[in-house]
């Protein structure tokens, strides 16, 4: 199955017998998508939801999956993948709604036998890029050593790079959300991801305090 995005035509999704692949350059290069998706499942059909901008995927033998909000991928196509290398970058979040969820009548608990797939997390989905700065390593330099009556010899020495004086630990991501009056309504801190790249934060639309 092949789906080409109508907004950013260079964004292409390809379903194969061995998984889902994504291209950001109109098919010149492909990357296997494995985040929240089986690595090698037959991917039979796909459609981009026109309202939610989600990728809905039908598989053979593993039901169907939904890749929520593909707009960050569109931004990577439009502005370049160098965005993924930034220390911090925030993507424009989609609209979010406060909603209450209720089980269907007759179901008291999941073990009764009715299949219920995992729903999208409630609240607002905030996509962002974060990369921890790497500490500078020692750099080998050549230092001449001269002994009496001999030619100069060259030996390797390890010289440490200048240390960056900073109290920043880069172990926490601070999230502040403002209302239309410019007042902070959410002041939250989450542990910084171990791996850099694209991550998501779910806000339940409740205000701090």
* Count of helical stretches: 1
| Structural class determined from secondary elements | mainly beta
The helix-strand sequence is EEEEEEEHEEEEEEE
Sequence stretches where pLDDT stays below 50 over 5 or more residues: none
Task: Please supply descriptive tags for the structure shown above.
single chain; 209 residues; mainly beta; three-stranded antiparallel sheet; 14 strands
Fold and architecture overview:
This protein is mostly beta strands. The protein is 4% helix and 37% strand. It contains one helix and 14 strands, in the order E-E-E-E-E-E-E-H-E-E-E-E-E-E-E. The chain has one helix at 71-79; strands at 2-4, 12-16, 19-23, 31-33, 43-48, 55-59, 64-67, 88-90, 124-130, 139-145, 153-159, 172-178, 184-191, 197-203. The chain has a four-stranded antiparallel β-sheet with strand order 1-2-3-4, with no helix packed on it. Strands 5-6-7 form a three-stranded antiparallel β-sheet, with no helix packed on it. A three-stranded antiparallel β-sheet has the order 8-9-14, with no helix packed on it. A hairpin with a 6-residue loop joins strand 5 and strand 6 (55-59). The longest helix is centred in the middle third of the chain and has 9 residues, at 71-79. The radius of gyration is 25 Å and the shape is globular. The model has no long low-confidence stretch (mean pLDDT 84).
């Amino acid at each position: 199955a092949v789906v080409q995005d109508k907004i950013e035509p260079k964004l292409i999704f390809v379903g194969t017998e061995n998984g889902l692949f994504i291209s950001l350059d109109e098919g010149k290069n492909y990357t296997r998508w494995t985040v929240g998706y089986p690595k090698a499942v037959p991917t039979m059909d796909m459609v981009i939801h026109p309202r939610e901008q989600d990728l809905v995927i039908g598989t053979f033998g593993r039901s169907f999956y939904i890749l929520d909000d593909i707009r960050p991928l569109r931004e990577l196509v439009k502005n370049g993948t160098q965005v993924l290398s930034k220390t911090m970058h925030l993507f424009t979040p989609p609209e979010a709604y406060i909603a209450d969820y209720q089980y269907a009548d007759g179901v008291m608990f999941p073990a009764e036998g009715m299949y219920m797939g995992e729903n999208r997390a409630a609240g607002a989905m905030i996509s962002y890029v974060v990369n921890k700065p790497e500490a500078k390593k020692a750099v080998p330099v050549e230092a001449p050593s001269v002994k009496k009556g001999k030619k100069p010899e060259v030996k390797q020495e390890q010289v440490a790079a200048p240390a960056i004086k900073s109290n920043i630990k880069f172990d926490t991501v601070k999230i502040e959300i403002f209302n239309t009056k410019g007042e902070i309504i959410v002041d939250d801190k989450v542990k910084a991801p171990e791996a850099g790249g694209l991550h998501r934060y779910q806000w339940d639309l409740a205000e701090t305090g």
